[in-house]
From TrEMBL, chains A, B, C, D:
PANTHER family: CYTOPLASMIC PROTEIN, CYTOPLASMIC PROTEIN-RELATED
Full protein name: Four-helix bundle copper-binding protein
Gene3D superfamilies the UniProt entry points to: 1.20.1270.360
InterPro entries in alphabetical order: Csp_YhjQ (IPR005560), YHJQ-like (IPR044543)
Superkingdom of source: Bacteria
């Protein structure tokens, strides 16, 4: 994924795109894919009944990360307030999902990796909210 | 779409599901589909260059409505704070998209219908935020 | 959802839109939402371990139905061959998901309703493939 | 994105996951994100009226790639025939989108990069269809 080159060739992005938005778009894509895989791996575990909340949060997280990555990619008619609220919702579900996955990270490697992806995405959303002009 | 019957048969929904959540799920699905159609109709208009912001907001709105409808449907491991933030982001994009569509509702019937779908979805998100226990 | 009015106001749709495509778009939205709800209801059942395949097919079905409904909505630059293949994949997952849900329709009302939504969506995809000019 | 490690820790994946499926999942995520960015960059170009078909195919491609990557990630209740049809639809839209983007790759760097992402995803879908047991 070469988000930086894509944004550099976007007519509405003047000069070098913000590292924060580039990173956020890529972390959202990564986290969405990882959460889908974690949900499916949890579903296949013997102890699936104990992993219901993890599966549900994984699916919520994948859905918001997908939407947020798409919204963060749009500069042609961007609405800063909408992006800010999407980033806020995304950061919150990443935190919830990371906390849940961390509870069984010692037992399930997929939850350990997924928690890391959620933490990285959470940080990238927070940085995007802090750094982007007009987003606050 | 028979969301009420689906939720009544959900093991985690005790008794009759909240009308607010049922309506919100259905309005999100309706608004997402309408926004996808409005974006494509705008793209086909002669004056497409004047409709860039409308297309972009339509696509943002479709993506958040899809994610929010999915999150509102999940009760197996629900996280009220995540749902609340998703509803907030959804309400905001519905408001932005409705305002933009209303600017050319007199000229484009698809924008008039889309603005109505966005307003209905906005109201349903606000009602869901007001009525649901634990969402505030 | 007033798909017919939306398509009638679309600059690329000449005259009255095909009933088959209107119905297909609406059934895809309905089936996607119903499958998301069925997956979550299955996840909350005591016998979740026996419902793994149902949950997985529900999620697949929701994802393809969402994509297919969006593609069927786009007329601005439509590629008939792509739509045909999407409809084919959508019909197949609707059939698989309906068959799986029917296995426990007697036990779980959400699976009974979901099977019906999948069957209706399957029929609408088949009709769209049969009726649309240039789709074969 | 560490899809290989995620799949290695999935209870239903015996031993080392297929390189073809790992690559396909990652290319689908990459192509979906790139297509969303290309659609938005095209929308912001002065010559947007000439890029309608490109925007529409970009959006179709993003939607199928997202769905296909999710379906390819699910092994808990996998239906090989559904995955095969999704891969077929995905390969076809990637080919259409690549051909369209290549028409203006000399003028728009975002279209050049997007065409490459689509070609890579097309190859990964074809390899997944060829290599995976039970997929034919």
């Amino acid at each position: 994924m070469d988000t930086q080159s894509m944004l550099m060739s976007h007519p509405s992005v003047q000069g070098r795109p913000s590292d924060a938005i580039v990173n956020c778009i890529e972390q959202c894509a990564d986290c969405a894919a990882t959460c889908i895989q974690c949900a499916d791996a949890c579903l296949a575990e013997d102890m699936v009944a104990d992993l219901r909340r993890c599966i549900s949060l994984d699916l919520d997280c994948a859905d918001i990360c997908t939407a947020t990555g798409r919204i963060a990619s749009r500069h042609a008619g961007a609405d800063a307030r909408v992006l800010h609220l999407a980033l806020q919702a995304c950061a919150e579900i990443c935190r919830s999902c990371a906390e849940e996955c961390e509870r069984h990270a010692g037992m399930h490697e997929h939850c350990r990796i997924c928690a890391e992806a959620c933490r990285a995405c959470l940080r990238s959303c927070e940085e995007a909210m802090e750094r982007l002009p007009g987003l606050q």
